[in-house]
Predict the structure.
Amino acid sequence: MADPSLYSYTSPLAGYENLPSLPDEKAADGKSYLNPQTGVLSKSYEKFCEPLDNGIRGAFDIHIYYFQKNAKQVQYARELWERIRREFPELRIYKFWEEPIGPHPVAMFEVNLFTPAQFGAFIPWLVIYRGPLSVLVHPNTVNSETGEHDEQERDHTQRATWMGDRIPLDLSLFKRMADEKARRAAELAAGTQNKD
């Protein structure tokens, strides 16, 4: 898991400054609070908030893991993969990997979610139907200045949510990607200087 102190965080109250204090009045259940109603739903019901990717990549990747040497898990994972394809054909569902790939240390398959409605329907469904399998839910964030997905390690760690047992990822892939990006930038800068 990533060290949260390595990152900066915008206040969750940004844009909500200088408003009247919230009431202490309780709702009919006697436990929850009554909230001031505005008559307008949050825009997050319609579109994922920034910096989530509302484009072609999708805002969330869902990785569903199974132990490839465990016959019962393999069978359950294959059946779940088929069920998802049948019940949620609008989602992007990838190959059923039979071995580890990328930073994922065990076999898995991936589903992408593009809208808050898809997230709201699929994630509660998966909570019930994931069975013995572990699930990584991670965002795909976009750098607003460059348009790149340059915080993939953070998206897979500090911003991630797990269902079931957390499976340690091989984060060295992200470090190699960052090193390669830095190397290319240095070569580009050197090439630009040589032309001057």
Q: What stands out?
A: The longest strand covers residues 60-65. The chain has four helices and five strands. The helical segments are 71-87, 116-129, 152-156, 172-195.
